[in-house]
Amino acid sequence: MAEKNYRILVINPGSTSTKVGLFEGDACVFSANVAHDAQKLKEIGDVSAQLPYRRDMILDILDQNKVDLASVDAFVGRGGGLMPCEGGVYQIEEKLLHDARIGANGVQHPAQLGSQLAHEFARFSGNKPAFVVNPPDTDELCDDARMTGIRGVYRNVHLHALNLKETAIRHAATLGKRYEDCDFIVCHIGGGISISAHKHGRMIDGYDIVGGEGPMTPTRCGAVPVIEAFAYLEEHGINTTRRLCQRSGGFADLLGSSDALEVCRRAEAGDEAASRAWSAMEYQIVKYIASMAGVLHGHVDGILLGGGMVHNQGLVDYIREGCGWIAPVTAYPGEFELEAMAAGAVRVLSGKEEVRHYTGSPVFSGFACFE
């Protein structure tokens, strides 16, 4: 008997738009990027309060394109706002919705609306199943990766988990293997840059990209010597320093632009500052990729590159030259976020993966021997 082509509606809210896609099995049959008025969002204020506004705009687009919600088998939204949890497909239940509404992880981001919107649409269609897949706070770090040299202070992880894991799953399939049987270094290189080590289906190490770790990016400062960060903080204050870690560092601070295409063009045209910043970013990416090879003890089945900046062939060539000795480097320009959400739902509906239930308890809360 042929496997059913489940119809999945996926919802991925961003800062000023919401991406929506309807999938039948692996095929995307409809997609739209629903633009929202930035001033209207600002007037609404709180992220979760934007729900009715975004929902109604999405419903209008779906109606205009004759997308019948009654024909959808399941709904999937981004899983922002949740406490750290293991990777997987989580059923949207009341505890998950509560934490998404309040932003339980302390980060206010439109991704919080993903699960809330999926829940709304599922309710409209007769309480169909609704899920989140590999939430942004997916945490599968090995114990050694959690430690710092300060008692009671542990490393966290904030990465593009959804795209990282989907890229690894897809690449494993090209090798005729399961993700769970492979070891990869997987990177997402865009406005933010995630570099992670995947061992037998678990993301055992990676950098806290909103906490000031990893390479410089178009919008984040990356790792900075702590003593220098203290000096900067004393002069400029904690809020300015925090913003450099999260959204106003990197190219934005050095060059006044977070547009990677513009920075690359400036560098190629002979702009010394742009050339220096671009070169430093490339250098740091290679440096951090190589560090993950050590975490995997040199057993690396592939180095996988995803994200918008991977469209830049010069960047890919630089990484391949710097890291190709570790393992083959494969580029997957762009991202698979919508596809990843749909694929997760299909795995659960077809019985290939067991659905998980979100508890709200962080996957890690410290080592008893240091408490």
TrEMBL record:
In terms of InterPro entries, this protein maps to: Aliphatic_acid_kin_short-chain (IPR000890), Aliphatic_acid_kinase_CS (IPR023865), ATPase_NBD (IPR043129), Butyrate_kin (IPR011245)
- Keyword set includes Metal-binding: no
**One Pfam family linked to the record:** Acetate_kinase
Whether Cytoplasm counts among this entry's keywords is: yes
Q: Which CDD domains match?
A: ASKHA_NBD_BK
Q: Which domain of life is it from?
A: Bacteria
One Gene Ontology term of the biological-process aspect is:
acetate metabolic process
What reaction(s) does this enzyme catalyze?
butanoate + ATP = butanoyl phosphate + ADP
Q: Where in the cell is it found?
A: Cytoplasm
The terms under GO molecular function for this entry are: acetate kinase activity; ATP binding; butyrate kinase activity
What GO cellular-component annotations does this UniProt entry give? cytoplasm
> EC number(s)?
2.7.2.7
Which keywords describe this protein according to UniProt?
ATP-binding, Cytoplasm, Kinase, Nucleotide-binding, Transferase
The record's comment on protein family reads: Belongs to the acetokinase family.
- Protein name in the entry: Probable butyrate kinase
- Gene for this protein? buk
